[in-house]
């Protein structure tokens, strides 16, 4: 019997540990192997964890010594308490879970007779998947009786890869090193060293014990680079999905699409303009961009051929580091399946789609590609090192007239720019001689600072210039608090005295209800009433839609208020705010943000309204003395641990966030216009500044359609654009309304292209 041990958090479970556990159930014989799975900071019963006699789950939080250690070390979390960018080498907390889990089990095995049948205890990282049924005959080769300890050494690193550690518990030396390993954490010795993670601490102890006679076996003595596991005999039976490789690769499913960045829409527009029939891409990834570019090309042709290049499953930790890759990888078979499915769909529309995929390093595969000369459009987004982007350019420049590069970087508003090693495309653009080079405008920020752009290269004389709408800078509204910081803080303090209940808004279990959210725009009341009858719902509204709903016989569940301006003032819609609350329904819960002007709160309370408070995050509430971490200023009086609601610039957007916090995942939107129907000549003269230089109403263009809007409404539209394209947010949205700016934003978005469950049901009326 060989005993294994691992550990994971809730996020780790969903990201990779579930894959590991499922493979254990499938590939491990319970007569020969057992896994003790330590979980921490969540309830294992809250997830559908695989069950088998091979696996025993244990709560790591039951170890009081670990909890005390984490509390003492909470400042040493890799960010120095939020004062600097995260550095995993200086995180004394994250890596302690491994040490406490393996030592807890080891100490138990040393004491209990039931473990006498096994002398070996093996640590196995939870991002490891068993790919082949374990053969017990192999284990004496890996874990010989003469060895005290088995590890994965690395010639090119200062410490071993600790994803696999074998401990012979019949050895006194082994028992002592485990005790010292745990002791280094318990007494806080970890933070006295250059690096604080388990690998560094373990290697220090290993060298000391080897010098005093410990017998060790290195399963990766000939390994080069960092990926020792993959170069050991263990790789015949296990895959270690380290770093970006954590996700279990599938030969049928690809990783989720990335739809948020605006520059990808620019890419599709470039394809539409130049009308290619053969598209080449380095960095195929999951095939999503291949589909997008091909669909754009199909608008002008009936036949499209795609040529894709990627490392696919050949990617390694070393290649990710060298090429500055941050995305998970996909198997070539999975991408082939996705493109085959797309091919079938195109046939049904009368279109012909063909493709070829080339696996491997593009520096080798691209020059060797026989189809290269046929391509008339290239998108270069593979490896990001200067060496790779230059090699890709050298391969395509002789043949392809239109070339687009991703990841050209510029400084952000704070003057930040990625490190020099990330600027491979920037350097290449300075060297390229072409008939035209254009860096396209972008608002796509980069983690750590900077803005990333597409860079267009005209590689053929006489190519038409890019249209103006692709090269002009879009209107971007940067919302600011409508009142001074101190005034908002004073509002928060005052409302904390006026409002008794601030506990209504808190993270709740996911429910199966629908949140119907009604903003202040045009409302189709007939449709709204139909949806209220058809769904298990609660109606949320904002202050401008509240009187409209009551007038039409609809009693909202809640009215959300977010406005730090006085009740007697005039709203942005030209209505006296007080007049919006002439009639109050006692069944409506008024969710009043703490930053709301107290005159609004007092007015509602005077009318007997059911008022509940909530905390809306604003920069005005932030302690600006704390860098690189959002901390609420103590001056506000907001309790530490309070639920802070973000989500946008206006009450309607915060209502979505409130609904999500309360457990809603199905949303239907009404009155989300973000534009005005008609602007008269008099309205065109209205301004927003004392100098009368900034017009209140502006005309914007989206997908060839023009809309009149205001700065506030445009900011809301931009909030909607971000939300509608965030695939990682678990929510379904049905948008009601047409002919408005927000309707067009939704139509163009990822969520707008999805079919909602209600549209897929073929039910007779």
Keywords:
765 residues; alpha/beta; Spore Coat Polysaccharide Biosynthesis Protein SpsA, Chain A; Rossmann fold; 3 domains; eight-stranded mixed β-sheet; eight-stranded parallel β-sheet; disordered C terminus
Structural description of this entry:
The chain is α/β, with parallel strands linked by helices. The protein folds into 3 domains: 2-245, Alpha-Beta Complex (Spore Coat Polysaccharide Biosynthesis Protein SpsA, Chain A); 263-471, Rossmann fold (3-Layer(aba) Sandwich), CATH 3.40.50; 485-760, no CATH class. The protein contains 24 helices and 27 strands. The strands form 5 sheets. Strands 10, 11, 12, 13, 14, 15, 16 and 17 form an 8-stranded mixed beta sheet that branches. The protein is globular and about 90 Å long. Residues 755-765 have low confidence and may be disordered.
Please describe the topology of this protein.
Blueprint: E1 2-8, H1 10-27, E2 33-39, E3 55-59, H2 64-72, H3 96-111, E4 120-124, E5 128-130, H4 139-142, E6 149-152, E7 161-168, H5 172-186, H6 198-211, E8 216-218, E9 238-240, H7 263-274, E10 278-282, H8 288-298, E11 303-310, H9 317-322, H10 332-348, E12 352-359, H11 362-365, E13 377-380, H12 386-396, E14 402-410, H13 424-431, E15 436-439, E16 444-445, E17 451-458, H14 468-471, H15 485-498, E18 514-518, H16 525-534, E19 537-542, H17 546-551, E20 558-561, E21 589-593, H18 598-606, E22 610-616, E23 644-645, H19 651-661, E24 666-670, H20 681-684, E25 697-702, E26 705-710, H21 711-724, E27 732-735, H22 741-748, H23 750-753, H24 757-760
Parallel strand pairs: 1-2, 1-4, 2-3, 6-8, 10-11, 10-13, 11-12, 13-14, 18-19, 18-24, 19-20, 20-21, 21-22, 22-23, 24-27
Antiparallel strand pairs: 4-7, 5-9, 6-7, 14-17, 15-17, 16-17, 25-26
């Amino acid at each position: 019997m060989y005993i294994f041990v691992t550990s994971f958090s809730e996020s780790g479970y969903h990201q990779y540990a579930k894959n590991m556990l499922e493979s254990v159930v499938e590939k491990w014989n319970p007569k020969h192997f057992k896994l003790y799975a330590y979980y921490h900071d969540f309830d294992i019963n809250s997830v559908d964890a695989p069950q088998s006699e091979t696996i025993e789950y244990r709560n790591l939080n039951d170890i009081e010594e670990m909890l005390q250690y984490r509390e003492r070390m909470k400042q040493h979390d890799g960010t120095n308490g939020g004062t600097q960018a995260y550095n995993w080498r200086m995180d004394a907390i994250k890596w302690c879970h491994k040490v406490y889990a393996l030592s807890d089990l080891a100490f138990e095995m040393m004491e209990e007779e039931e473990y006498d049948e096994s002398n070996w205890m093996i640590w196995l990282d939870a991002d490891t998947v068993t790919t082949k049924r374990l053969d017990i005959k192999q284990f004496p080769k890996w874990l010989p009786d003469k060895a005290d300890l088995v590890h994965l050494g690395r010639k090119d690193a200062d410490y071993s890869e600790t994803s696999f550690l074998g401990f012979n518990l019949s050895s006194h030396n082994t028992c002592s090193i485990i005790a010292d390993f745990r002791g280094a954490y318990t007494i806080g010795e970890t933070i006295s060293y250059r690096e604080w993670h388990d690998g560094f601490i373990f290697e220090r102890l290993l060298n000391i014990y080897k010098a005093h006679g410990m017998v060790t076996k290195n399963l990766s003595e000939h390994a080069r680079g960092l990926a020792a596991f993959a170069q050991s005999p263990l790789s015949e039976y296990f895959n270690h999905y380290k770093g970006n490789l954590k996700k279990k690769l599938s030969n049928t499913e690809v990783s989720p699409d990335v739809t948020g960045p605006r520059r990808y829409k620019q890419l599709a527009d470039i394809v539409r303009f130049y009308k290619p029939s053969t598209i080449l891409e380095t960095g195929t990834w999951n095939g999503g961009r291949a589909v997008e570019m091909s669909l754009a090309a199909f608008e002008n042709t009936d036949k499209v051929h795609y040529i894709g290049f990627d490392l696919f499953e050949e990617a390694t930790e070393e290649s990710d580091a060298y090429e500055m890759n941050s995305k998970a990888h996909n198997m070539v078979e999975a991408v082939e399946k996705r493109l085959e499915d797309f091919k079938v769909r195109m046939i049904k529309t009368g279109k012909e789609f063909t493709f070829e995929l080339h696996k491997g390093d593009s520096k080798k595969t691209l020059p060797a590609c026989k189809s290269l000369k046929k391509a008339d459009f290239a998108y270069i987004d593979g490896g990001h090192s200067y060496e790779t982007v230059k090699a890709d350019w050298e391969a395509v420049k002789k043949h392809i007239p239109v070339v687009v590069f991703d990841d050209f970087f510029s400084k952000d508003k704070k003057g930040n720019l990625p490190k020099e090693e990330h600027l491979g495309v920037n350097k290449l653009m300075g060297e390229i001689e072409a008939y035209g080079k254009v860096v396209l405008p972008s608002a796509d920020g980069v983690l750590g600072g900077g803005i990333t752009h597409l860079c267009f290269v005209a590689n053929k004389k006489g190519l038409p210039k890019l249209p103006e709408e692709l090269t002009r800078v879009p209107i971007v509204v940067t919302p600011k608090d409508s009142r001074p910081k101190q005034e908002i803080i004073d509002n928060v303090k005052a409302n904390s005295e006026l409002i008794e209940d601030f506990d209504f808004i808190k993270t709740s279990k996911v429910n199966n209800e629908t949140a119907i959210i009604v903003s202040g725009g045009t409302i189709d009341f007939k449709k709204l009433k139909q949806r209220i009858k058809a769904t298990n719902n609660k109606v949320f509204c904002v202050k401008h839609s509240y009187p409209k709903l009551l007038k039409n016989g609809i009693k909202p569940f809640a009215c959300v208020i977010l406005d730090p301006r006085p009740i007697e003032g005039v709203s942005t819609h030209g209505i006296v705010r007080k007049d919006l609350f002439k009639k109050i329904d006692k069944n409506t819960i008024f969710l009043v943000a703490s930053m709301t002007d107290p005159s609004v709160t007092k007015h509602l309370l005077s009318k007997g309204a059911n008022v509940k408070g909530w905390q809306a995050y604003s920069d005005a509430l932030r302690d600006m003395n704390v860098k690189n971490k959002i901390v609420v200023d103590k001056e506000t009086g907001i309790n530490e641990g309070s639920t802070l609601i973000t989500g946008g610039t206006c009450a309607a957007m915060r209502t979505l966030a409130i609904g999500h916090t309360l457990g809603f995942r199905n949303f239907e939107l009404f009155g989300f216009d973000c534009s005005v129907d008609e602007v008269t000549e008099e309205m065109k003269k209205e301004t927003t500044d004392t100098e009368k230089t900034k017009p209140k109403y502006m005309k914007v263009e989206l997908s060839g359609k023009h809309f009149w809007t205001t700065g506030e409404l445009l900011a809301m539209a931009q909030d909607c654009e971000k939300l509608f394209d965030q695939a990682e947010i678990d929510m379904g949205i049905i948008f009601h309304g047409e002919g408005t700016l927000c309707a067009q934003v939704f139509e163009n978005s990822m969520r707008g292209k999805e079919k909602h469950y209600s549209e897929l049901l073929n039910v007779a009326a």
